[in-house]
Amino acid sequence: MENLNPWTGRIDAEDGERGHRWHQVVQCQHIDELPEHEKALVLVGYPNDSGVAANKGRTGAAEGPNALRHALANLPWCKEGSLYDVGDSTIFDVLDDTQCSYASLVSCALKKKAKVIGLGGGHDIAWAAFQGLAAALPQGTNIGIINIDAHLDLRKPSPAGTSGTPFRQISEWCHQQKMPFHYACFGVSKAANTSALFDYAKESNTRLLLDYEFNIESAIATVTPFLESIDSLYVTVCMDAFSSSVAPGVSAPAALGIPPIAVIQFLQWLGKQQSPLSFRWHYSDIAELNPTYDAEMKTARLAARLVFELTDAMG
């Protein structure tokens, strides 16, 4: 993806504000100048795939944030409130430092009372995002994570983290803090996870649905007790959860995958549960969008639709 201004697109001047698209309302703002605004949506980029390389995946996801911005630009803006793009986190030679940079941006945006959506990048974005959430929210906040993913990403760092270790890192952090680890992974492929990963999932009380089990009814039944015990929700969507026929541009393509429509229905349902189940949905992200392999921008377009739906569901 060419590194040009992604926020350009069609303008329907005859429709006035009702015809506005994302590129017409987005404000590119330095994080230090971000105003406090409860109805703001803030986009943060994570242009990094060093964690993917360390996990022996195919690289290219570093270009994901800009590709996603391009795909978002022409979507209709249907929300009240403001849209900000605070740019990308700084990329360092050491993955931990890159993750700290991203965590700082997320934390700053959340402290401004905004909702935040992360644009990845490898799935190591999740450990960075969790650190940002934990820093911004009151101490003792129970954070629940729903991961839409073919992979459990519960590998043990050996010794450093990768795109395959973020939820193990979160689990270990929760254990150190004597806090519960609330994690659900939907769309898991038996053919893409070792027995050791399923063992740790069981040990850590991970709730999961296999790819061929996933539908709106099974997702609701699995996650409802989970939602009743959390204060803040974090939803992360790995684009390799979907079949390579609809999402070819990912770090690890899926042969089977789960239906995008069912995922969208589930996200819409989640959004409606915030009040009755008394949790807040502060943050979401997209991971593993890899434009290098993305024929006709299929994956970027699907990722943009998911961001559109997340924006609506988060409120």
The N- and C-terminal alpha carbons lie at a distance of: 31 Å
SS content category: alpha/beta
Order of helices and strands: HEEHHEHEHEHEHEHEHEH
CATH topology: Arginase, Chain A
Could you name the CATH homologous superfamily?
Ureohydrolase domain
Low-confidence parts: none
- Gross morphology: globular
CATH class: Alpha Beta
Helix content: 25-40%
Radius of gyration: 18 Å
Overall structural domain count = 1
- The neighbouring-strand order within the major sheet is 1-3-2-4-9-8-5-6-7
- Summed up, the helix count is 10
CATH architecture, by name, is 3-Layer(aba) Sandwich
Concise overview:
This is Formimidoylglutamase. With 315 residues, this protein is of the alpha/beta class.
What does it look like?
By secondary structure, the protein is an alpha/beta fold. It has one domain (13-314): Ureohydrolase domain (Arginase, Chain A), CATH 3.40.800. Helix content is 35%, strand content 17%. The chain contains ten helices and nine strands. It has helices at residues 22-25, 50-54, 64-72, 95-111, 125-136, 166-176, 195-203, 216-227, 260-272, 298-314, and strands at residues 26-28, 41-46, 83-88, 115-120, 143-148, 182-188, 207-210, 232-238, 280-287. A nine-stranded parallel β-sheet has the order 1-3-2-4-9-8-5-6-7, with helices on both faces. α4 packs parallel to α5 (125-136). The radius of gyration is 18 Å and the shape is globular. The chain starts with 21 loop residues before the first helix and ends with a helix. The mean pLDDT is 96.
